[in-house]
Every structure is written in C-alpha cells, then in structure tokens.
Known about the structure:
mainly beta; 10-stranded mixed beta sheet; 4-stranded antiparallel beta sheet; 3 helices; elongated
Amino acid sequence: xxxxxxxxxxxxxxxxxxxxxxxxxxxxxxxxxxxxxxxxxxxxxxxxxxxxxxxxxxxxxxxxxxxxxxxxxxxxxxxxxxxxxxxxxxxxxxxxxxxxxxxxxxxxxxxxxxxxxxxxxxxxxxxxxxxxxxxxxxxxxxxxxxxxxxxxxxxxxxxxxxxxxxxxxxxxxxxxxxxxxxxxxxxxxxxxxxxxxxxxxxxxxxxxxxxxxxxxxxxxxxxxxxxxxxxxxxxxxxxxxxxxxxxxxxxxxxxxxxxxxxxxxxxxxxxxxxxxxxxxxxxxxxxxxxxxxxxxxxxxxxxxxxxxxxxxxxxxx
Length: 317
C-alpha cells in the first residue's frame, strides 16, 4: 500500500509540472496591472456595487459588528508593510512586484491610526470585516475545469477569525464556499501559496465571462497582505471528485498508462474524454470488456463523461 501511494505521489508530481496552465494574472501575462495592484481600489459600502475594471474594497462592518458598513477597507499601498502601532516593522515584503503596490487589510492601523494606546480611535475600530473583490475576469473555455489561485501572502494574526478567498462566476452576485488559506501558510511566514478553489466553481457554468475572486478579512488585529496574483488550472484531484461514477461503478487502475477498466456493466454506452482545459480529446463506445484504450493520450488529468451524465476523473501517466 505504501509503495503504491508513493508511486501515485511521484506520478502526480510529474503531472503537476506538465499541466499547470495559467489563465489570468501575473504568470499568464493577462491584466498584470490589476494582478500586481498597480491601481488604487474603488471603495464602497454597498454589496454588488463592484467596479468592472478595478479592484473594489467593500467594507462590511466595524466595532465588532455594531457599525455597518463602516470603513473597513482593504487598501493599496506601495510601502509593502503595515503602518499599525503594534507592528513596528518597516521592511517591505519580498513579493516580486511590491514596488508597484500591494493589497493590505491593515487591521492594526485602521484601529489605532498608528498611535500606541489609541485603541478604537482610527478610521475603522476593530473587530471589523472587509472584502476585496477583483475586476471582471474572463475565464471562457474552462467550464468544469478545477481552478486555483496563486498569490504572494503575509499575515500576522491576533484574533483573525477569517482570512479567505472565494470565487464567483456571476459577477459577484453569488459566491461559492470560501477557502481559509491560513491552513496553507503559518502566521508571519511570507511567500507564494496556491489555493485550490472548490471543485464546483465552474461546474456546468457555460458563461464564464464575468468571474471574480474575493479576499475576506474578519477579526481583530494585525494585518493581511496579498500580491502578485495568478488564476490557474488546478492540478489537484479534489476530494469531491473521486474515482467513483456511482455507488457501484468505478475506474481502475488509476493512474494508468494503457487502459482504464470500468467496473460494472456499461458495455455499448457512449463516452467522451476531456482534457483539463475542457477540450474533447476522445470519444467512443464502451467495449464488451468494459475497457477504454488511453495509450495515445498525453500524460495528464482527464474527465471521462458518459451519455447518461455520469463522470469520473482519471490520470494518464
């Protein structure tokens, strides 16, 4: 079992290097100005009042929720560090484009205005909650494709209750489940992290012309910084995407080099196979031995769909 697991990890690591595809932002060389926070943010206290072309800072509440919306804004600055009275550091973060601007929710500074002991006398007394919503992002062609967001991050927590990223495919009218990224990065440790979005983010969504991502800070002191954002195709098999097509049908071996075997009676059922970009690369009818020959496919992650709507992901090594 251990040997098989290690083999899977090695295969998966090689596939990761083969299939990392950048869709928007710094590494994709698309809308780099916004991905590097080169422009100031549009500030608002009204949900769904988002800029089309710029980042929108939305204040939700302050003073522990007793004041809404307040002035709990993410800000762009070119200093690269928190201005709060209890941070005290003036060394910028090491993100590649820090000099062009960063995005910061400076909870410390907003509460005290940079003055020691001036609790609650700043522009937005804590605890507070603010969101940072991206401009519209066109991800056409990525329906049913797992997505991830890569960005440079540094945060310091006193009583942060939420530090997350979420995705919308309908211009920010509704949002998918948020992902708190603190589990991927310890407090006071800076660097690039990659956050896998929920597997349902683009599932069955045919119109991906008005996508957005959102960063959320909720809590009390100190700060969160993000910079240099890229949206890319995720190379992780989501925990929501198992090998099972139904309760009684599954695929094996997975990964596979030459063929995949389908357990269950699916002979004569039509199928299609899509690559990680959503393009159809193969179609046919299940043979009498319930096998599909995949030896001509390139190494990567694929989605097998049947004409009855069932589907499963598999890896070609």
